[in-house]
UniProtKB/TrEMBL annotation:
<keyword id="KW-0347">Helicase</keyword>
<dbReference type="InterPro" id="IPR010339">
    <property type="entry name" value="TIP49_P-loop"/>
</dbReference>
<keyword id="KW-0010">Activator</keyword>
<dbReference type="InterPro" id="IPR027417">
    <property type="entry name" value="P-loop_NTPase"/>
</dbReference>
<feature type="domain" description="AAA+ ATPase">
    <location>
        <begin position="80"/>
        <end position="375"/>
    </location>
</feature>
<keyword id="KW-0378">Hydrolase</keyword>
<feature type="region of interest" description="Disordered">
    <location>
        <begin position="1"/>
        <end position="32"/>
    </location>
</feature>
<comment type="function">
    <text>DNA helicase which participates in several chromatin remodeling complexes, including the SWR1 and the INO80 complexes. The SWR1 complex mediates the ATP-dependent exchange of histone H2A for the H2A variant HZT1 leading to transcriptional regulation of selected genes by chromatin remodeling. The INO80 complex remodels chromatin by shifting nucleosomes and is involved in DNA repair. Also involved in pre-rRNA processing.</text>
</comment>
<comment type="function">
    <text>DNA helicase participates in several chromatin remodeling complexes, including the SWR1 and the INO80 complexes.</text>
</comment>
<feature type="compositionally biased region" description="Polar residues">
    <location>
        <begin position="1"/>
        <end position="16"/>
    </location>
</feature>
<dbReference type="InterPro" id="IPR003593">
    <property type="entry name" value="AAA+_ATPase"/>
</dbReference>
<dbReference type="Pfam" id="PF06068">
    <property type="entry name" value="TIP49"/>
</dbReference>
<keyword id="KW-0804">Transcription</keyword>
<keyword id="KW-0234">DNA repair</keyword>
<dbReference type="GO" id="GO:0005634">
    <property type="term" value="C:nucleus"/>
</dbReference>
<dbReference type="GO" id="GO:0003678">
    <property type="term" value="F:DNA helicase activity"/>
</dbReference>
<dbReference type="InterPro" id="IPR027238">
    <property type="entry name" value="RuvB-like"/>
</dbReference>
Length: 474
């Protein structure tokens, strides 16, 4: 779904008609422009007022400020048991507002968007899909302190011994690993399994690594190898390796590791126990259905374990955001289950969006409710309305979209596109420039002219003109 703010990038001083083509990646392939990758937040100042045309938004001042209040409520843990409902016409930025709220809450906060029609499946019942989405939106930050040996590898010496089962082969008895840090050096006599991990990661002398004392695993933050010590860096500009400084402190140290998982991950891990490694087990796992329904009993057990971790101070629960677009597609059973989920102790923030007015609640024959949502759920919602765009705002959106796509617009083209957007729809106006640029290139021109837009209008119809033609011919 492409909202109006979908095509809004961060404001730039470069006018669209002088825009240069976007830079191509090194591999020579043009990357697609993601619909909402430009949304960086709600664009509010420290006092909570919307700053004009920032953070990827054009307009929607009242809606952004209202969502800013919701963000403050969520951060202060005072929004539990309620939901936010975004209502407005298509292409007015409802999805972008939900993403903006997610960014304001932080990058580590889980964000799970679904569309109302996704809950209908032939494999899993619809309430299970909703429960699974809610669980994936509740994060668990686990903090663990481990003893590790960290440093630059100065020595790798495997010691071989005769294999007692065969007179021909030899086995690795142990391996001597020398590690150096700023404060000193240390030699470790390690298990053969650690040597296998070192060979697997292609670690050589000069690499900076760390080894967990309890498990013996060779683990590192970004990759399995932190990088080469900067003592090995040459004076050349082009380097294929990553160089890092020598680790500070002693070789043997205590390190705090933070791992982020969701309750959905824990449910899935416990619901699908791993079978054996034989061929029949592997084939059986391939034949099985891809989705497994998690029982309520299992969820309660997972919650009990998580609560124990939280009480011990080992873990912290991070409530995320569930965004249900086209919420009027849910039926009466789903709405009833949503009420129950909102009352659960560990409920994420729920954001709903719809473009319907008074409509029939799906799954019923006589219940007409505002936005197609039952009144008992609407009572739990704070409702924010998104406004339609003016001609000036449509022109800004089209101009920024042309800048992103590297299209050059001739005189009067922007005004014509803004007029088309006001008469038809914003999405229709945003779809015209790219095919018009193909016509301009066929005519030997580098910029789009007004006649190209006129020819596009002859080739393609917007929704209203198409409906009028069908009505008149009927």
């Amino acid at each position: 779904m492409h909202n109006a703010s979908t095509y809004v990038m961060a404001s730039t001083s470069t006018p669209a008609h002088n825009a240069l083509p976007p830079a191509q990646p090194a591999a020579g392939r043009s990357s697609r422009i993601a619909p909402h990758s430009h949304i960086k937040g709600l664009g509010l100042n420290s006092e909570g007022y919307a700053v004009s045309d920032t953070s990827g938004f054009i307009g929607q001042t009242n809606a952004r400020e209202a969502c800013g209040v919701i963000v403050d409520l969520i951060k202060s843990r005072k929004f539990s048991g309620r939901a936010l409902l975004l209502v407005g016409a298509p292409a007015t930025g409802k999805t972008a507002l939900a993403l903006g709220i997610s960014h304001e809450l932080g990058t580590k906060v889980p964000f799970c968007p679904i569309v109302g029609s996704e809950v209908y499946s032939s494999e899993v019942k619809k309430t299970e899909v909703l429960a699974e989405t809610f669980r994936r939106a509740i994060g668990l930050r686990i903090k663990e302190t481990k003893e590790v040996f960290e440093g630059e590898v100065t020595e790798l010496t495997p010691t071989e011994s005769e294999n007692p089962l065969s007179g021909y082969g030899k086995t690795i008895a142990h391996v001597i690993v020398g590690l150096k840090s700023v404060k000193g050096t240390k030699q470790l006599r390690s298990d053969p399994n650690i040597y296998e991990s070192i060979l697997k990661e292609k670690i050589v002398v000069g690499d900076v690594i760390y080894i967990e004392r309890n498990t013996g695993a060779v683990k590192l933050a970004a990759r399995q190898r932190v990088g080469r010590s900067d003592a090995y860096a040459s004076s050349y500009d082009l380097e294929s390796e990553t160089y890092v400084p020598l680790p500070k402190g002693d070789v043997h140290k205590r390190k705090e590791l933070v791992q982020d998982v969701t309750l959905g991950d824990l449910d899935a891990a416990n619901a699908r126990p791993q079978g054996g490694q034989d061929i029949m087990s592997v084939m059986g796992s391939l034949v099985k259905s891809g989705r497994t329904e998690v029982t309520e009993k299992l969820r309660r057990e997972v919650n009990k374990v998580v609560k124990g971790y939280v009480d011990q101070g080992v873990a912290e629960v991070v409530p995320g955001v569930v965004f249900i677009d086209e919420v009027h597609m849910l039926d009466i059973e789903c709405f009833t289950y949503l009420n129950a989920l909102l009352e659960s102790p560990m409920a994420p923030t729920v954001i709903l969006a719809t473009n319907r007015g008074n409509s029939l609640v799906r799954g019923t024959t006589d219940i007409v409710a505002p936005h197609g949502v039952p009144v008992d759920l609407l009572d739990r919602c704070l409702i924010v309305k998104t406004a339609s765009y003016t001609r000036e705002e449509i022109a800004k959106v089209v101009q920024l979209r042309a800048t992103v796509e590297g299209l050059k617009l001739g005189a009067g083209v922007l005004e014509r596109l803004a007029e088309e957007g006001e008469r038809g729809s914003l999405r229709y106006a945003l779809q015209l420039p790219t095919p018009a640029s193909i016509l301009a290139s066929l005519a030997g021109r580098t910029q789009i002219e007004v006649e190209d837009i006129g020819e596009m209008n002859e080739l393609f119809l917007d929704a209203r003109r198409s409906a009028d033609i069908i009505t008149s011919s009927a």
